[in-house]
Known about the structure:
Helix content is 5%, strand content 34%. The protein has 174 residues and is mostly beta strands. The chain folds into 2 domains: 1-48, no CATH class; 64-174. Strand 5 (74-78) and strand 6 (83-91) form a beta hairpin. It is globular. The model has no long low-confidence stretch (mean pLDDT 81).
Amino acid sequence: MYSGLGTYEGGGLFLSDASYKLHAIWAGRTRKKASSLVRDDNSGPEIDGTGDLPVYFARLKRDGWQRLTGQEKVFDKLLPCGWILRKHLRGKYTAKSERGRGLSWDEHELINTQSGASIDGNNWEWADWDRNSIVWATKGCLYRASIKSNLEIGSPAMLHDFTPYTFEEREAPH
């Protein structure tokens, strides 16, 4: 584990079950070395240090998202039947944080390049493509829908309602 300065220049991503890559390393600030994991700064997506969220940008790229040309904080993922899942990064980077949202958040939309159809996903707190379906979270619930055609997606099916869950503080075991 590395001691940093809050979230400033922090973060990293797992490259595999056995390795990880860090965004910034603070010399002499190592607190505990996890012997089962190996730090690998030469593999995986480049973390170039530019932009507001270099680790997040690298993770999006790793997971198949493409930055929209000329748009620093807009990413697309190509889906079947001409659909694009578009992710807009919002928050301290573009506007003042809204009530009920954290410092930064994502907004989404589905756009069909063939038919012009679109679906507003601005209330989706997270969205991605998984196992031939669009999966998203909103208001504490996780949903899934398939793509039917270039005009429509299937009916949303709730996978799980997380709203009954509450935070339970636990002391770390070390």
